[in-house]
């Protein structure tokens, strides 16, 4: 089963709703069509941005393309859809940004807040913005995965023998149909010249493959975008859980100090002393045949392990700032008029520590993505057939030096790009929050993993 | 300034009624980790009372325990022993709803206006927070109250939506004061409220505090590290040294004629506005002893310029006596200091560590002086102990020989004058000369 993370669903609800609003504002037909698709989309939001509206799966009937958007070639139709998806996403974000600016300028009662400075500094940080754009691109890829693939998971990868594809058969000069599974068998990339479907080409069955095909003839791009979804979900959920644990413990230890702190130091030191990758491999092997391992293709187990292993790093990296803020007089002031410990931590301490956590989290996300890929590469991570970048790399490894180089290389390049982007973004936040910050050593040092 | 009628009624406080009574309060901390058994005696048995509507100044050098005392009264530190009675209720044992009620009645203004305001909150939110915590009336009335408070402390309503960053130090301190006033407390602890501010701003804030006191009938405990500031605003002053109140009494009287030797020293350090007035500066030797290990007798005995001498040394030359005290101070410092790394190395190599130092010290201190043979013998004896790395024995030896009642017995607070002044010094005992008299002879 495809992993549809709960949180992604939630994001999509919002994004989808806002997209509808935006489209409504646009003049002309596409708006109306999109809005009607929005209505259905409340059930199947990820397919919202118009697989049906801009179809690219068609066939050549000898004189023209049938079933594609405006009769364009499948490649062009696919390109249009990808463009529309990204245009959508960036339009929505631009609209939100504009809204924030207007709010800030015209509606907010406060004319200046400390956070404004942070935003302004980030605006002047090109490297961080580069990171942000990469990150958004990656997130959009994950969120809109079903709309971005030239074909669907269900049809091409999970149930290829339940679907048919029509194609123009040159020999008989007529349109034939064939099961997708059989078509896949005939379009694998195995290195040899006639056993290869390179990026941006059609296979023998008139199907367009932006990233070529995998060894088994399944579409690589579809696998890559769904792989992005899995990686992103694992990384953000694991980081989220670890962040919540780390932040809460940092608040408690900084507020109560003494024994509480000592206990957590011991606990986190013992966890940090473990080699992360070894623990992951060990745990995955131990749970190999249990039900936990089955949950969402193993993602749940991976998430749990990562959160358990990562919280000490988060706690460590924010412990200093937490202690610093706990020494401020405003904490005493709050205690002196009887503010409860919980509120003191939430209102007077957490906001000062949160940004540090954000930096650290964005830097570590890349590490987790790499680790997950590494595990899948070793055959331990996400179970097949759910696509995962690491496994794609492993599958294509033996063909790196052959015409089928794309199978390993493209996912590899993407991982590098995404991790670089996340790190750049983290750097940007760090410089924006604290222009004088001298190091991010502690945080950056753990960016790796696999 | 706008006030409500109930606030005005409060102005007519009956003076003479005790609001706060502190009895033998002690606050000790263990801050040296789990193993140290020797706590810091930050507040070491303090008693005083404050009347309603009064301003009591609490002065002393930094580290004397005055801030800890303030924080203990505020229940920010737990008292180790003793009691603090506010309106007759001992507040050191309060908890739950009673503690919350107490938090309603007592507020604090902090020293550093940069650190006492959460800079991620707007001024309005900051001042409102106490009201929110205590569920004061309705949110609308709270906002209204905050606006009034802003005006009361001399700021403007529109500052509600600004952040602390946008204000100067003096203005921030006004915000802190407004926050302290929010719950209409009876008693406010002012922890060095002006010492972080420019001199020009200090006077304005002090005036504001006085006006507020008159308007709302507030009682203040004003903590400060120099007497000059306290002079203007306080009715009575308590002088603290090493966790003890050395002298407490009416401000004017104490400034006129200090009773306790420590007060003498402290007052003489205020720059004299009138240069022709003769008041000689008394420079104290050394530093205060560690509050982990306070002297057994009078807290001030290690530095007191008019310390009582044992009978047989009364006639000893003043300079020589001074040197003997310095020698004792040196030994005390040495026993406090960890052996340095080079000392340890020398020790391991079997070289002499302290001996050379001791001889030099003796020569340096007593070289130019005419030292009677018996005194010199005692000094050598002590130096011998120290040579063998036994500073404690050396100190004990010197204490036995040159020590007096000041080293042995903790003085009581003795009455001075007829306005309820108390001073912690053996010299107020009939047996001895008054500190003031001795100071006069010293100065000549
Ligand atoms: S008791 Fe002795 S040492 Fe203490 S202040 Fe009085 S004279 Fe000085």
Please characterize this protein's 3D structure.
The complex is a heterodimer of chains A (450) and B (444). Chain A is mostly helical. Among the domains of chain A are: 153-218, no CATH class; 226-447, MetI-like (MetI-like fold, Orthogonal Bundle), CATH 1.10.3720.10. Helices cover 65% and strands 4% of the residues of chain A. Chain A has helices at 6-25, 29-41, 74-107, 114-123, 126-143, 145-148, 153-158, 180-185, 220-256, 258-273, 276-286, 291-294, 299-326, 329-336, 341-377, 389-396, 406-433, 441-444, and strands at residues 59-60, 65-66, 164-169, 174-179, 201-202, 208-209. In chain A, strand 3 and strand 4 (174-179) form a beta hairpin. In chain A, helix 10 (258-273) runs antiparallel to helix 13. Chain A is globular. Residues 1-11, 13-47 and 438-450 of chain A have low confidence and may be disordered. By secondary structure, chain B is α/β, with parallel strands linked by helices. Chain B folds into two domains: 12-256, P-loop containing nucleotide triphosphate hydrolases (Rossmann fold, 3-Layer(aba) Sandwich), CATH 3.40.50.300; 311-403, no CATH class. The radius of gyration of chain B is 26 Å and the shape is elongated. The N and C termini of chain B lie far apart (54 Å). The model of chain B is unreliable at 1-14 (pLDDT under 50). At the A-B interface, helix 14 and helix 15 of A face helix 3, strand 6 and helix 4 of B. The structure holds iron/sulfur cluster. Iron/sulfur cluster (SF4) binds at residues 261, 298, 300-301, 304, 306-308, 406, 411, 425-427 of chain B.
Q: Features of this protein?
A:
heterodimer; A: 450 residues; mainly alpha; MetI-like fold; two-stranded antiparallel ribbon; 6 strands; 65% helix; disordered C terminus; B: 444 residues; alpha/beta; Rossmann fold; 2 domains; eight-stranded mixed β-sheet; four-stranded antiparallel β-sheet; 17 helices; binds iron/sulfur cluster; ABC_transporter-like_ATP-bd (chain B)
